[in-house]
Automatic annotation (TrEMBL):
PANTHER family: DEHYDROGENASE/REDUCTASE SDR FAMILY MEMBER 7B, DEHYDROGENASE_REDUCTASE SDR FAMILY MEMBER 7B. This is Short-chain dehydrogenase. Transmembrane segments: none annotated. Belongs to the short-chain dehydrogenases/reductases (SDR) family. It comes from Acinetobacter schindleri NIPH 900. The lineage of its organism: Bacteria, Pseudomonadati, Pseudomonadota, Gammaproteobacteria, Moraxellales. It comes from the Bacteria. GO terms for molecular function: oxidoreductase activity.
Length: 257
């Protein structure tokens, strides 16, 4: 039985991933700052679920959580770096503390997770890392500057480690959803969400993560997986369109009526 460790798993996309993988008979680690919510979810999901505390901005917290999960599950096959935060609004009007916290959680948190999990993944017979990137990593979004920056960093880390860790038999991939119906996008102040809408569920993202985990590895398995039609369209448009076309498209998305 494979095991999966999920950061930020008490609610939203993380909880959907935990629920789906439990149904698929994986041993599931539900780790979150909100330990009470994590424990409630683990109790609901049954004996294949285990809850624990994790502050992704703390490397020591990662080490403790991973050791705890391996002791319970016996091994760690899959790491899902799901924990993240989003601040929206005009860049210059947002407190600098919000920008710094975005970096601490969305960038340092993923770096911490990958680095701390490496020895656990290296000794597993099957190992994959799935990072939560975003369609905001396809082209930077107005009013989401720090969030988009953080997701570009996740995209770059994913590509780099997918090459670097090939020799260790560890695939590193990411999913790139557009806006997902979770608490994160409530009251979001960005014109893009009004223009593009919120059509994805947390379960949609979880299903794509499961597909990436279960696909047999070969050269055709992509590093990036856009989630949903709109994200796929934007991803492929950015690859084949001239840069000025991408910029004009995003200017139109960001333009207020």
């Amino acid at each position: 039985m494979h095991s999966i460790f999920i950061s930020g798993a008490a609610q939203g996309i993380g909880a959907a991933v935990a629920s789906l993988f439990c149904r698929e008979n994986y041993k599931v680690g539900i780790y979150d700052l909100n330990i009470s919510l994590a424990e409630q979810l683990a109790e609901q999901l049954g004996p294949n679920a285990h809850a624990g505390y994790l502050d992704v901005a703390s490397y020591e917290s990662w080490q403790t959580a991973l050791q705890d999960f391996e002791a319970w599950a016996g091994k760690i096959n899959i790491l899902v770096n799901n924990a993240g935060i989003l601040y929206s609004g005009n860049f210059e009007k947002s407190p600098i503390e919000a920008h710094h916290r975005t970096v601490d959680i969305n960038i340092k948190g993923v770096i911490n997770g990958c680095h701390a999990a490496f020895p656990f993944l290296e000794r597993a017979a099957f190992a994959r890392v799935i990072n939560l990137s975003s369609a905001s990593a396809i082209y930077g979004q107005a009013d989401l500057a720090s969030y988009a920056t953080s997701k570009f960093a996740v995209r770059g880390l994913t590509e780099s480690l997918d090459i670097e860790w090939h020799k260790h038999g560890i695939r590193v991939m990411d999913v790139m959803p557009l806006f997902v119906r979770t608490a994160m996008v409530q009251d979001m102040q960005a014109e893009s969400i009004k223009k593009m809408g919120v059509h994805l569920s947390a379960e949609d993202v979880a299903q794509d993560i499961l597909k990436l985990v279960q696909r047999k590895d070969n050269l055709l398995v992509p590093t990036h997986q856009p989630v949903g039609f709109k994200s796929q369209f934007l991803y492929h448009l950015s690859r084949f369109s001239p840069q000025f076309v991408n910029r004009m498209s995003n200017l139109l998305i960001a333009r207020k009526p």
